Amino acid sequence: MSKVDRILDKYSARVYKNRKLHIIEKTEDNHEISANTRTIPGIMTNRGCCYAGCKGVVLGPIKDVAIITHGPIGCGFYSWGTRRNKARGDKHTKNFVEYCFSTDMQEPDIVFGGEKKLKQAIKEVVEIFDPDAIMICATCPVGLIGDDIHAVAAEAEKLYNRKVVAFSCEGYKGVSQSGGHHIANNGLMRHIIGTGDRVPTKYSINILGEYNIGGDAWEVERILKRIGYDIVVNIPGDSSIHEIENAHIAHLNLVQCHRSINYVADMLKDKYGTSWLKVNFIGVSSTVKSLRDIARYFNDPELTARTEEVIAEELAAIHDEMEYYKSKLKGKTAALFVGGSRSHHYQKLLKDFGVETIMAGYEFAHRDDYEGREVLPFIKEDADSKNIESLRIEKDERRYRLYLSEEQYEKLRKEIPLDYYEGMIKDMEKGTIIIDDMNHFETEEIIRILKPDIFFSGIKDKYVIQKAGILSRQLHSYDYSGPYAGFNGAVNFGRDVLMGLTTPAWGLVKAPWKNSPMIEGHLQEVV
Amino acid sequence: MLDLTPKEITERTALRINPAKTCQPVGAMYAALGVHRCMPHSHGSQGCCSYHRTFLTRHFKDPAIASSSSFTEGASVFGGGSNLKTAVRNIFDIYKPDIIAVHTTCLSETIGDDVGAFIQDMDIEEGKYVVHCHTPSYVGSHITGYGNMIAGFIKYLSRSTGRKHDRLNIIPGFVNPGDMREIKRILDLMGIPFIMLPDTSGVLDAPMLGRYTMYPPGGTRIDDIIAMGDSPLTLALGELACEDPANELKRKCGVDYKLLPLPMGIGATDQFIMALSNFSGHEVPYALEEERGQLIDILLDSHPYFHGKSVAIYGDPDTVLGITGLVLEMGMIPKYVITGTPGEAFTEKAQELFSKFGVTGCTAKAFSDLFELHQWIKNDRVDLLIGGSYGKQIAKAEDIPLVRAGFPILDRYVHSYMPLVGYRGAMRLVEMILNALMDRQDRDCADEDLELVM
Ligand code: SF4
Predict the structure, then answer these.
(1) Which of the listed CATH numbers 3.40.50.1980, 3.30.70.20, 3.40.50.300, 3.30.70.1070 matches domain B24-157?
(2) Each residue of B76-100: pLDDT tens digit?
(3) Is B90 on the interface with A (CB under 8 A)?
(4) Which H or E element spans position B252?
(5) CATH number at residue A121
(6) How far is it between the farthest Cα atoms of chain B?
(7) Between vectors from CA B300 to CA B296 and to CA B305, what angle results, nearest 5°?
(8) Is B136 part of the contact surface with chain A (CB cutoff 8 Å)?
(9) pLDDT for A116-147, tens place per residue?
């Protein structure tokens, strides 16, 4: 039996038929996988919902916006302070990341409608906090009871003379968090990006889709600033709404998490002509490659020289520690199951340490994240994806400009991933397993069949995996450590993984009396 | 930290800021995990289930299993009946539980899914069960959901055959597995056979033995839930969380119940022990008298370090009342006592405690939040905070020591294994309070004032 068949073996015919499209073993010609489709009811999935993708992921990290969750208390509560998107406020920038705002809808609000309460909540947030901007995120019941949050937002925007943007990200929309990313991207593009008037400098860039989990964005920014880049905004980690307003002025967009932010990247290209470059700041070699790719885009000898200088210095600074961790971790095997980018990004970092990835999967990715953007024209729309609006973007004639000539662009596209993402699968070895929307049952099967040394996943799996005797580290929250990005992050990662593998408790699991065959004693004749 | 929170208090009627409660379903999920070989099932969109599992896992640092009906937009329009049917079939097929405990979410409640009817229409294999309860998240809180799920088990399963047995029913409030173990230990010491529903010990404090089992050995047995209908009496340990399920059992099977506070602190534990002794007619064993005496001994010895100190307590109603009782017994001043869960009964009970101990100037409020508590503290501070992890923001902002007790504790370890109930639990809480206050004194005092002996 193939590995894939062994994983699927115990499923009923119905479930088998569905799941077999989501699990593949990489061979020379087999790259196709089914993704971004409904989870079968009853299957213990790791996926979250549209609200989680919109408020929790994309909007939550924007620090100076008061985000009001419109709904019963749960959703707002769960997305309060739990994601580790770090942010710092200052004299001019309020930091609401520590706060949770909700309309805490009660039964009468559901029965008679919640608009009145929402309006009052906006009034109160303005009176108490005077935020520069307000966002409203809908939870499950809101759309069903017919609250028009967009009308409320428009009215409040006039009344209080500041940006108020509503997001219809009810939990049941789409098939995972992914729909919520898209809705958030649309809102940012429609209402915020392009309203600022900052002037670009020579090397103005944006970072897109870096969430500053554990301080990742700060490490990335540190490196880019050393080289001399002017970072207009990182969307959204530790960002301010006023920075986002200016996202249209950059000469280049760096896309870190393709899944959650590619819509903004595409729309910026269509509207303003800005190209995007797929980067990966997770892993030493991939950080180096990304820095060189960016330099090639700007094609300025001085910048290129400075890039090499910084790379050399950074590599020298971490060399000894990297070598040490590599000597300890080399030859280990890993399985990765994370959201929609990290399962790819972290394979590179693991490779830096000589750790081999034997299985990887995404929770809510689309086929292009697995197979590369060349499959985009072939992805069929289904009822669920049709429910998420695709913005039609017109060219902004006044502000549209191309940084490269057509000729330069075509030439460069062959050399660096400009407006292109190759997907995860091409980077994986033959014989590795790829699983989309992996569930609890399959996690147990992977442990049993593939026996990885380390299983990177999230909190819901972590203790399942560890109880089975395998180290599990969370790649959503980094187990409250980090940063893991960039050069310094790589060292942190190596330290944490080695610590996890060598902590003495692993050697104490078996009680001594389980090892000795029998308890000593003397025989008595039984009559 | 929390720099934007103003000192000046303005009235709010719509905006909840920094809540001290969460939604019903997570309570239902917790209760269902306390039944042996049970799969909690969330009938709604999968995000709720994901959030609730995450929340429980973060508190217990142990797997919290649960499945979802994974609603999509279609199900939200046409109803989730077929989703539930498919889900139940798949769960029995793949995860092989003995029982599935369905709770609703605000989505399935808003569209009015008749879950009871869906279940009635199902073909369920002999010996397997599917039960349900309603947990609209726009009513009550996670505490309400906990009670509703227990009532759901009783409604579906408990039977009165007319032949009574001698086992006492215990319905514990929303407490940790460590508390449930302690309650059972006390019952054993009293020599009383019992059925406890739910019982998350052995499930959410499962040991590391080198292999994962989806259904660890803990949890109330289905047969025992059935047999609860023939019990002589139910003790509901949590005046605000446990009355509904106890009442449900009385309604359905005629089992009388006695509503008691969570046995936290001396008075409430005394009440529990007395109720046990009355029930069994047994004398209280020396072992318990010894524990009680040790606790009082500790209080007398250490009183200078906590007497008269003011404290703010926040969290779930029964737990907050229990801690309030203990700190009053210690001679502390529970200056602010809040819960996010709605219900005036909480305020009344807190007031009763205040007047019983003759303290004045203390405020109790239900349906409150941590933002409000913080503003009060900004206007008139306290010496100590007691509650879950979210209070750490206030603790840091105002530089006030924090003792973690209750739900959720997301940022510490071991708490779920240890009790706060009973005399032993009170002893533990007293130790934590003392350590917090005395560490603080050591930290803040001048060098010449550092006391070696205290
Ligand atoms: S949608 Fe409703 S039930 Fe689900 S987490 Fe949010 S408040 Fe709770």
Answers:
(1) 3.40.50.1980
(2) 888 999 999 999 999 999 999 999 9
(3) yes
(4) helix B243-253
(5) 3.40.50.1980
(6) 77
(7) 125
(8) yes
(9) 999 999 999 999 999 999 999 999 999 999 99
